[in-house]
Write a structure and sequence with these properties.
The complex is a heterodimer of chains A (288) and B (271). In chain A, 82% of the residues lie in helices and 0% in strands. With 288 residues, chain A is mostly helical. Chain A has two domains: 62 residues; 209 residues, Orthogonal Bundle (MetI-like fold). Chain A starts with a helix and ends in a 10-residue tail after the last helix. Chain B is an alpha/beta fold and 271 residues long. Chain B has a six-stranded mixed β-sheet, sandwiched between helices. In chain B, helix 5 packs parallel to helix 6. The termini of chain B are far apart. Classes of the chains: A mainly alpha (288), B alpha/beta (271). At the A-B interface, helix 10 and helix 11 of A face strand 6 and helix 3 of B.
């Protein structure tokens, strides 16, 4: 909001509502248009420069490809399918693995996080192990999972789970630890059992902590699935990347990345929508 | 029968020592003797941080005394019992529950069927004047309204003993006087025994049958004053009565000394 909008006395707007209110609304609209236009301009400039440099041979078009080729590749995949089958099937495969891994990882993370947050004894025993496991670069487990679980979805789900589990776990743990002591004391005095305190006080107040980790972790689930597919799979976008790379099709690699980005953004949007529904009890605005 | 004749609350030689984060020991309450009769309204005043609140947590069963004995209705306190209601200083309404659901929480926790809990909760919301707000969330209410929700949520459990830890200290002065009157009205219908902790002596005298002055921490009872102002009282008008001022002066003499001690200690800490 512009400073004059704040300092203008209310009386003024009441006296002369048409001009002030109108001009302010127009200024706001103009700003919005300007920002959108600038955004589009940035995109066009970057893509245009890429296209131009590539076409003129300043950068190697074979390695760097160019936006028009990437677009053609996407169109080809959409209309004629990929070498592995239809594009939708590849997307669905990756999404399926990521979702399954995400749900499993989130469930495990939340349950264990809340349990350890509530039961100090458990936290003291398992704490160091979780720290050690967290410090392992878990992405290198992906090849091991392919060996263990084969080329099917199971190995991808497993790598998604290990990536998703830790951020969710740590947030749930922290959320359970940071519960307002007053609320817990109040619930206990009102007659809540330990189980009730956990279910009806600790978990609801930890949800905002958990939700922040859900956003990040869905990205991780996709990464887990893609890396797993890249290493060895029969279907999926990760395999598409690997195959495009294998056939020196740079446009294919980029096209797969674009498709992935769209998938991730849609998932993020859905999650934000769900969050709004769940957190109706929160004061809107300032909090987030 | 003995349960009926025994006092509502009895603390005998109760002490509570906490372990501080730095590893030391902090005695909040030492050798505390306090008896509260049935249906009696006792206000506890003392310097800030002297351990008044700890006394309440001992009675509620949220904390156990390190030494001594705490009984409620003649029976030693073992954990949180079902006779006690507690109104906290900070907001302790559940922000993710609606007003109605907040007031229903107590009965639901205690296994009352949903329909019955709803009926009781509505009756209490009506009594605190929030019937029209039952679908709101706490963040949509004012501080005074949230306190009313807290009162309704406590009273709906029909507590024999009502513990209040500076419940109105976060409210503005006008709202505070209003809430005090409302509290007296609500309480007079229930026959509950009340322990009301505050650092506001005026509030204490206006509300209570007895005012107990605590020493600078570790807290123990310094003096016990009976307040012979007639009931029913209106907080705003009772303040102006000569007898009120007389009592105030008398108690302040006792309390003021403890406040000074606390302040000097604070100064010594800084130096």
């Amino acid at each position: 909001m512009s400073p004059e909008a704040i300092t203008t006395p209310v009386v003024d707007t009441a006296k002369t509502p048409p001009d002030r209110a109108y001009s302010r609304a127009r200024a706001a609209r103009r700003r919005k248009v300007l920002i959108t236009a600038a955004r589009v301009l940035v995109l066009v400039a970057v893509l245009g420069l890429w296209e131009l440099l590539s076409r003129s041979g300043t950068i190697d078009p074979f390695n760097f490809s160019m936006p028009s080729k990437i677009w053609d590749q996407i169109v080809t995949w959409v209309t004629h399918g990929t070498a592995l089958g239809s594009l939708g099937e590849q997307i669905w495969y990756t999404l399926y693995e990521a979702l399954l891994g995400w749900v499993a990882g989130v469930l495990a993370g939340v349950v264990l996080g809340i349990a350890l947050g509530r039961i100090a004894f458990l936290a003291d025993i398992l704490g160091p192990y979780i720290k050690v496991l967290n410090s392992i670069p878990r992405i290198v487990l992906a090849p091991i999972f392919v060996i263990w679980f084969g080329l099917g979805p199971a190995s991808k789900v497993a790598s998604a789970v290990v990536l998703v589990f830790f951020p969710v776990f740590f947030n749930a743990f922290q959320g359970a630890r940071e519960v307002d002591r007053n609320l817990v004391a109040n619930a206990r005095v009102l007659g809540a059992s330990d189980r009730r305190v956990t279910l009806q006080v600790v978990i609801p107040s930890a949800t905002s902590w958990i939700f922040t980790s859900l956003h990040v972790s869905f990205g991780f689930a996709l990464i887990g699935a893609i890396v797993g597919e890249y290493i060895g799979a029969t279907k999926g976008i990760g395999l598409l990347v690997a195959q495009s790379q294998g056939t020196f099709n740079a446009a294919g690699v980029y096209a797969a990345m674009v498709i992935l980005a769209v998938v991730a953004l849609v998932a993020e949007g859905l999650l934000t929508f769900a969050e709004r529904r769940i957190f109706r009890w929160k004061p809107s605005g300032s909090e987030n | 029968m003995s349960a009926n004749t025994s006092p509502a609350i009895e603390l005998r030689g109760a002490s509570k020592t906490f372990r501080t984060p730095s590893g030391g020991l902090h005695t909040a309450v030492r050798d505390l003797d306090l008896t509260v009769g049935r249906g009696e309204f006792v206000a506890v005043v003392g310097p800030t941080g002297c351990g008044k609140s700890t006394t309440l947590t001992l009675v509620s069963g949220l904390e156990e005394p390190t030494q001594g004995e705490v009984s409620v209705a003649g029976e030693p306190v073992r954990g949180v019992g079902d006779k006690v209601g507690f109104v906290f200083q900070q907001d302790a309404t559940f922000p993710w529950r609606t007003v109605l659901s907040n007031v229903m929480a107590g009965p639901r926790f205690r296994g009352v069927p949903k329909a019955e809990a709803k009926r009781r909760a509505r009756a209490w919301l009506d009594r605190v004047g929030l019937a029209a707000f039952e679908d709101r969330y706490p963040h949509q209410l004012s501080g005074g309204q949230r306190k009313r929700v807290a009162l309704a949520a406590t009273f709906v459990n029909d507590p024999e003993i009502l513990l209040m830890d500076e419940p109105f200290s976060a409210l503005d002065v006008q709202t505070r006087a209003l809430m005090s009157d409302e509290l007296l009205e609500l309480w007079e219908g229930t026959g509950a025994s009340v322990v009301f902790v505050t650092h506001d002596l005026e509030e204490a005298i206006a509300l209570a049958d007895r005012v107990v002055v605590m020493t600078a921490g570790p807290a123990t009872v310094k003096q016990d004053f009976r307040i012979d102002l007639p009931r029913p009282r209106k907080v705003e008008s009772v303040r102006l009565e000569p007898r009120f001022i007389e009592i105030y002066r008398e108690i302040w003499e006792s309390l003021g000394e403890e406040v000074r001690i606390t302040r000097e200690r604070g100064a010594a800490h800084v130096a």
